């Protein structure tokens, strides 16, 4: 491991062998995913194992929507983290804010394209826009589209605004591709606007927080408000989603910060106290998620729950879905408890591992949430089954690979924090 | 107050008071509402031409509601529209049977635009405007009903299905698939087999087409207004050219009637060869709504919409499943009309006969009425064929690579009760 | 008196709330500087247009993929 160093823009310069290998591997994964997407778009959703629930004993939605929920949740979580740091002007966490900000955008994009892939006729996505003015009045899916668009706009705006401010306070000594970014975000920028920009960044931070906690619930609650399936009538659907988003968002940022610190040893921007702060957030949200999950499950296992809800509860607690359910609980609960017991002083490696475990655990549960009610129809029918096909697995894992690729590329272009000018400009 | 159809309409003080009371409950112009309501009835009675009526109110309606949605309902001659009085004028021209077909009497109105009930529910201020308009509907509707005995306002196609008599021969399933040229796994008509958790252990059957709900959750869920309930006759349809295949309607529907076309559909020519029906995939709205849907698009029972819109009067008012049923379980027709087959069937039932609508507590207002006992939530599905083809072969699911269907044990305790 | 459609409430109250908060604060919070705020709003609007346009482009892309002669 490298010695204690301060943040510099070195990560933007030069291309190491290691970096090339990582990018090449990710590009191969992305191309494989693209092939799977082309295959599916041409053959239709018949290449998936999805089927009509009930009469054909299948599940209507599967891996794509589950992963969509996971990505959308992470987008909301990272959005909230960015907003919280920016609104409270926690300068010690400025790099964390940038990391979370970039992830919020990438997760939003990933969620968006996954949902389009899951359409029977993906090329008609334009119709969603052209009829939006009418459908937004009643269709929760139209609200969701609105939310995701707003999220993307807000996250990019935050990147642009905060970079504009950073560049004003930094030397011009930038690699050429980063300089190009500077040119784009700095149109008409002058030193005189620094105080106003700081204020705007702060208030946009509040905007991000509001967005996360209001509209951020929508990808979850859209199943509850019109869902005709057992288990989709939970009035806590939006909260479950939000809790999952916060914990995965915290986990994603913790994992990324951990990996960056292992790689670059930036002890000033990713100090021990910052890493512990992230561990603390992860622990807090981990417990919140477990509490919400308990409330979610308790409604379906009591005798007072409607019959169909009980069948789902039984399948999850002790039936065919039990392995998945308990796996997700274990993957979140174990690291959360260990982190708490160690008072967030696990060390960077173990903390990163804990974060990865949480990410996986919530991903499993996201899929359960989408699939499980569809396996138990309202009318006497067949208990469904669903095993994703190779195409589905490639596209789903590929979505994660592509997200990672986008992030790895982003940190070659975008500075993650400020490197102050050697001479502090007089204000 | 029975009104003599030949006498000029009379709007007395009581009518005014009543109108004011009704209209006072919404935030729109009461005075305009009154005048509209009055002249709408004159229009219905033939005292006023449509052109005159339209000219008189177009600008005022736009000023008050932001849009004049009457044009929409106008072209289709929609009898469920907020303007039932246009129906008697238009209906005569169109020849009934839900023909309408975009050739409305008002010149200059863009044709081919579907007339949809949901339009009134949506598009901003219209949501509230609908309340104002439906107030008028109530007022005008009474008179129309009295005026015109042949056409008493609403047309709502629906079915009465007698589950007591069903023998699960699956002829309806077969006929439906053939009529609509559906792929093997799209069972728009499905026959549920189940036993109740009681001493009898007799197998019971429940044929399940789309319920064509009046408050259809699939319609509200659709993010592209592809799913809609037709003005003409209350049939719930899918616009195949707009549907994006998100399957949110399927998740929203508690009955499980939606079937996505996962792969390529059958060739269309085949459909034409089999049936002597003009443009079988077109409905009166000029939209793609009937027959098997294209790849990636949602399909479901359309109440054989191509028959309803056919020029052949023999086919109007019939469905393939109804026609084939050997035990006369399915009765299809306008359930608003007392003379219709389904209403007549209900009329002739014993007084203590049990009838129900499926999952009525969901508030979907289904338009299928079942005769017999409602399946309880803890009824157990029973193994059995789902298509006529199934009857001669192994019961595995038809899509390749799928695991066998799971059947819960009858009376087993894995049901959580 | 009837309630407006649920989507109207969701759109105006929930979905657009962060937009109100941000724009109001940009314009009126101290220090006031309409030039910088204006630039910020122009950036945001441009990004919004770009996002919607890229969704449309996505549709065209899938249409092309779907009609590739394989």
Please summarize what this structure is.
The complex is a heterotrimer of chains A (427), B (417) and C (70). Chain A is mostly helical.
Descriptive report:
The complex is a heterotrimer of chains A (427), B (417) and C (70). Chain A is mainly α and 427 residues long. Helices cover 68% and strands 0% of the residues of chain A. Chain A has 15 helices and no strands. Chain A is globular. Chain B has two domains: 13-147, no CATH class; 157-392, 2-Layer Sandwich (Alpha-Beta Plaits). Chain B has helices spanning 13-24, 30-44, 50-65, 70-76, 85-94, 117-121, 126-147, 171-180, 217-221, 248-252, 268-274, 305-308, 320-324, 341-347; strands at 157-162, 190-195, 203-208, 227-229, 236-238, 259-260, 298-299, 330-334, 355-356, 368-371, 380-381. In chain B, the strands form four sheets. Chain B has a four-stranded mixed β-sheet with strand order 8-1-10-9. The model of chain B is unreliable at 1-7, 69-151, 268-281, 394-398 and 412-417 (pLDDT under 50). The model of chain C has no long low-confidence stretch (mean pLDDT 90).
């Amino acid at each position: 491991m490298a010695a204690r160093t301060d943040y510099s823009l070195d990560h933007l310069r030069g291309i190491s062998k290691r970096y090339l290998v990582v990018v090449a591997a990710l590009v191969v994964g992305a191309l494989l995913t693209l092939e799977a997407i082309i295959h599916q778009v041409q053959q239709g959703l018949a290449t998936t194992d999805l089927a009509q629930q009930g009469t054909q004993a299948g599940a209507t939605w599967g891996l794509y929507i589950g992963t969509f929920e996971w990505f959308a949740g992470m987008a909301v979580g990272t959005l909230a983290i960015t907003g919280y740091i920016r609104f409270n002007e926690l300068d010690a966490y400025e790099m964390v804010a940038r990391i979370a900000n970039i992830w919020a955008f990438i997760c939003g994009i990933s969620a968006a394209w996954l949902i389009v892939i899951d359409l029977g006729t993906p090329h008609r996505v334009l119709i969603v826009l052209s009829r939006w003015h009418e459908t937004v009045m009643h269709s929760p899916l139209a609200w969701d589209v609105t939310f995701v668009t707003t999220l993307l706009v807000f996250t990019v705006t935050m990147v642009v605004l905060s970079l504009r401010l950073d560049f004003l306070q930094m030397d011009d000594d930038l690699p050429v591709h980063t300089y190009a970014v500077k040119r784009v975000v700095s149109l008409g920028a002058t030193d005189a606007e620094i105080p106003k920009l700081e204020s705007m960044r702060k208030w946009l931070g509040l905007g991000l927080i509001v967005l996360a906690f209001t509209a951020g619930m929508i990808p979850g609650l859209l199943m509850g408000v019109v869902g005709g399936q057992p288990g989709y009538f939970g009035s806590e659907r939006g909260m479950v989603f939000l809790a999952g988003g916060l914990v995965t968002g915290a986990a994603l940022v913790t994992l990324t910060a951990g990996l960056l610190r292992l790689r670059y040893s930036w002890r000033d921007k990713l100090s021990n106290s910052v890493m512990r702060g992230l561990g603390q957030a992860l622990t807090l949200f981990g417990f919140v998620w477990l509490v919400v999950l308990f409330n979610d499950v308790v409604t379906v296992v009591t005798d007072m729950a409607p019959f169909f809800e009980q069948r789902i509860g039984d399948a999850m607690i002790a039936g065919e879905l039990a392995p998945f359910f308990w796996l997700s609980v274990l993957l979140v609960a174990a690291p959360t408890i260990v982190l708490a017991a160690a008072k967030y002083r696990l060390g960077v490696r173990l903390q990163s591992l804990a974060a990865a475990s949480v990410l996986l655990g919530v991903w499993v549960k996201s899929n359960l949430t989408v699939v499980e009610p569809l396996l138990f129809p309202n009318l006497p029918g067949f208990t469904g089954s669903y095993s994703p096909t190779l195409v589905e697995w490639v596209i789903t894992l590929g979505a994660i690979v592509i997200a990672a690729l986008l992030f790895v590329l982003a940190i070659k272009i975008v500075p993650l924090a400020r490197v102050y000018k050697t001479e502090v400009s007089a204000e | 107050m029975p009104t003599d159809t030949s006498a000029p309409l009379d709007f007395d003080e009581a009518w005014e008071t009543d109108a004011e009371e009704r209209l006072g409950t919404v935030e729109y112009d009461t005075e305009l509402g009154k005048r509209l309501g009055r002249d709408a009835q004159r229009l219905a009675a033939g005292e006023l031409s449509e052109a005159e009526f339209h000219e008189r109110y177009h600008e005022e309606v736009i000023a008050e509601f932001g849009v004049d949605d009457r044009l929409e309902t106008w072209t289709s001659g929609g009898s469920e529209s907020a303007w039932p009085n246009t129906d008697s004028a238009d209906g005569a021209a169109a020849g009934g049977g839900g023909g309408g077909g975009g050739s409305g009497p008002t010149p200059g109105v863009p044709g081919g635009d579907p007339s949809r009930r949901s339009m009134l529910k949506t598009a901003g201020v219209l949501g509230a405007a609908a309340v104002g308009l439906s107030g008028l509907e109530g007022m005008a509707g009474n008179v129309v009903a009295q005026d015109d005995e042949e056409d008493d306002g609403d047309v709502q196609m629906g079915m009465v299905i007698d589950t007591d008599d069903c023998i699960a021969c699956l002829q309806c399933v077969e006929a439906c698939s053939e009529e609509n040229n559906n792929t093997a796994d799209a069972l728009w008509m499905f026959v549920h087999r189940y036993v109740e958790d009681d001493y009898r252990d007799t197998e019971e059957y429940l044929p399940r087409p789309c319920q064509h709900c009046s408050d259809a959750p699939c319609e509200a869920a659709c993010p592209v207004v592809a799913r809609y309930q037709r003005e003409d006759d209350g049939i719930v349809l899918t616009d195949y050219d707009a549907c994006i295949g998100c399957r949110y309607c399927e998740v929203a529907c508690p009955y499980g009637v939606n079937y996505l076309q996962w792969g390529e559909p059958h060739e269309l020519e085949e459909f034409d060869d089999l049936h002597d029906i003009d443009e079988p995939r077109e409905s009166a709205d000029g939209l793609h709504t009937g027959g098997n849907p294209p790849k990636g698009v949602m399909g479901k029972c359309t109440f054989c919409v191509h028959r309803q819109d056919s020029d052949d009067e023999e086919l109007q008012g019939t469905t393939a499943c109804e026609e084939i049923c050997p035990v006369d379980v399915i009765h299809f027709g306008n359930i608003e009309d007392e003379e219709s087959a389904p209403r007549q069937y209900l009329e002739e039932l014993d007084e203590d006969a049990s009838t129900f609508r499926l999952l009525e507590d969901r508030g979907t207002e289904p338009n299928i009425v079942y005769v017999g006992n409602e399946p309880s939530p803890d009824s157990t599905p029973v193994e059995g064929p789902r298509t006529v083809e199934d009857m001669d072969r192994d019961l595995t699911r038809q899509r390749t690579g799928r695991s066998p269907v799971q059947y819960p044990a009858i009376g087993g305790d894995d049901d959580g009760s | 008196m009837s309630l407006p459609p649920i989507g109207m409430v969701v759109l105006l109250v929930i979905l657009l709330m962060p937009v109100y908060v941000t724009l109001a604060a940009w314009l009126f919070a101290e220090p006031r500087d309409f030039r910088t705020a204006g630039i910020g709003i122009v950036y945001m609007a441009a990004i919004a247009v770009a996002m919607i346009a890229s969704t449309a482009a996505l549709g065209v892309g899938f249409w092309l993929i779907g009609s590739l002669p394989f």
